[in-house]
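dude i think i finally got it to work??
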Amino acid sequence: MTMLEQHRFTARRDGWHCRPMAVMAIVALLAFGLVLAGCGASAGGAERKATTAPAGGATVSATAEAAGALTGELTVFAAASLTDAFQEIGAQLEADNPGLRIVFNFAGSQALRAQLAEGARADVFASADEVTMEGAREDGSIAGEPRIFVANQLVVILPADNPAGVQELRDLARPGVKLVLADETVPAGRYARQILTTMGRNPSFGSDFTDRVLANVVSNETNVRQVVAKVQLGEADAGIVYASDVTPAVRADVTVLDIPAEFNVVARYPIAIVRDAANPTAAEAFIDAVLSPAGQDTLTRHGFLPAPSGGDQ
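look at this
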């Protein structure tokens, strides 16, 4: 190799060839860095979208909302006898819709009607009788047509140790028996008095049976669950309640006397959306859940009867 050729080779190695290679390496590194930065930004954005929720309470993501999940708060006013069954139905609806929160107000139907008439906010009203529901509609508290969703009947309950020795329905008229009823303004109390009146018309009970039984009433409670509590605690010798009120929690503490069908009543329970409901979509979904086969199965397991045929009003 001549001196000139050697000089040209050195120049290509040290300058014209090496510098372009270095520039190309730097450009490649910069491009790789931009790709990594872009991936990081995309991952961060996706994480923020999944974890960010609107202010104001528990709600589901935008994806869940788009899929039709129920959100927000739903307030249900329901007769006290529905406590256990409705809590179970509500818990399942919440589990299916993580953005939904259900708030229950259980009380005597007449008390709930009064609260609604006075402006209490609710989305759903379920009454233990049609009279109270019709009154709520007359008050302007109800939107649309109520639907009958279940039925019930009444039984006599006694403390498990039965200190008064009540063996049959006739014994309710015996002097000294302490009887507790729901107040006559409460559906269960009104039904109980209707049953006692029907018994009094039957010659086997005697014409004064009804008066003698009512003379033994020592307390009139504002809802049927309070009647159960009085008997369960031994503060009364007998009470008349719904069959569904004899729950597993109290079954060991009471004895049940059945009331024959010829004297008993069939209580029909209506349910409706409240006028100006804050969450009408969830309200309708709750009613649908109650009327669904699963909801009806839950109510049956809690001692209720299927709604009479043609139950929708």
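The two ends are 110 Å apart (CA to CA).
im so relieved honestly
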